[in-house]
């Protein structure tokens, strides 16, 4: 079988295994929907979110948090899920056994990437459907908006998956993987405009978040689902879609290089 064929076969195996793990499904697949429901229920009584008194640009709480939850879902599916998963496979000997099969590292990567893409698509679709029918969020109607969503989603998903593979080299054992990875992901969500309005953060925190990809994924998603006037709340008063693409490509390359350089079928200390 070719590298691509093995990668596609591995994608099916990985996807089935993912949905057979209830705790993983809850904390990476359903978690963004749960958080969206919590934010909508907790803050809707305050009214819509607007740019200021009398501003024509205003959205519901659910509509405002939808872009951030979409971005968080991409991060959880890619970075957190893969980093913990691969660290576990190193610890329990799965990778060592796979190293003795015809499966190449490239096919293994393709299988992981395929799984992340499948789960991210399903998760995003469910988030959008729930937002539309449960919370009455008005969805974009223009082709330009949905084409922007498509490239930000695909580029963000691939970048997150590669960074997850790269980050899996950091934990020293499978037992420490969650303790190492989850705090990193949680901090990024708080400083990148997922749970907090990005314009409310201090300048130094916004600058720090701008180094990492989640901020750019969330900003790209906000450009799709929020009125154009809300770009005034961004750090530079613009959606900066060009920079969204540039930073995601940079991190994609970083993730690919680090993944390839650090990946081993057998742990170094084994």
Please explain how this structure is put together.
The longest helix is centred in the N-terminal third of the chain and has 31 residues, at 61-91. This protein has one domain (3-40, 59-262). The chain has ten helices and two strands. 71% of the residues lie in helices and 1% in strands. Helix 3 (61-91) runs antiparallel to helix 9 (213-225) and helix 6 (143-167) packs parallel to helix 10 (241-262). The protein has helices at residues 3-19, 22-43, 61-91, 94-98, 105-135, 143-167, 174-191, 203-209, 213-225, 241-262; strands at 49-50, 58-59. The protein is elongated. It has a two-stranded antiparallel sheet. The chain has 270 residues and is mainly alpha-helical.
Topology:
Blueprint: H1 3-19, H2 22-43, E1 49-50, E2 58-59, H3 61-91, H4 94-98, H5 105-135, H6 143-167, H7 174-191, H8 203-209, H9 213-225, H10 241-262
Antiparallel strand pairs: 1-2
How many strands, what sense, and barrel or not for the largest sheet? Answer: 2 strands, antiparallel
Portion in helices? over 70%
Whole-number count of domains: 1
Let me know the average pLDDT: 90
Distance between the termini: 30 Å
* Total strands: 2
Strand order of the largest sheet: 1-2
Brief description of this entry?
With 270 residues, the chain is mainly alpha-helical.
Notable traits:
elongated; mainly alpha; 10 helices; 71% helix; 2 strands; two-stranded antiparallel ribbon; 270 residues
């Amino acid at each position: 079988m070719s590298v691509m064929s093995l990668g596609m076969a591995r994608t099916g195996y990985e996807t089935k295994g993912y949905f057979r793990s209830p705790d993983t499904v809850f904390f990476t697949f359903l978690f963004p929907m749960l958080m969206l429901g919590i934010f909508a229920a907790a803050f809707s009584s305050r009214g819509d979110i607007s740019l200021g008194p009398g501003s024509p640009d205003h959205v519901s709480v659910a509509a405002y948090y939808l872009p951030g939850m979409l971005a968080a879902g991409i991060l959880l599916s890619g970075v957190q899920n893969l980093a913990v998963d691969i660290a576990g496979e190193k610890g329990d000997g799965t990778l060592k056994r796979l190293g003795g099969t015809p499966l190449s590292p490239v096919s293994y990567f393709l299988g992981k990437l395929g799984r992340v893409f499948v789960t991210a698509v399903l998760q995003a679709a469910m988030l959008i459907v729930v937002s539309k029918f449960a919370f009455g969020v008005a969805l974009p109607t223009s082709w330009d908006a949905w084409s922007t969503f498509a490239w930000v989603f695909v580029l963000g998903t691939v970048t997150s998956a590669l960074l997850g593979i790269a980050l899996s080299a950091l934990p020293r054992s499978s037992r420490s993987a969650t303790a190492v990875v989850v705090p990193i992901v949680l901090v990024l969500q708080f400083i990148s405009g997922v749970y907090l309005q990005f314009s409310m953060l201090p300048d130094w925190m916004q600058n720090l978040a701008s180094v990492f990809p989640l901020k750019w994924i969330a900003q790209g998603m906000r450009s799709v689902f929020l009125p154009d006037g809300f770009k005034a709340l961004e750090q530079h008063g613009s959606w900066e879609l060009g920079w969204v693409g540039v930073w995601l490509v940079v991190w994609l390359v970083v993730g690919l290089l680090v993944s390839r350089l650090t990946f081993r079928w057998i742990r170094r200390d084994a």
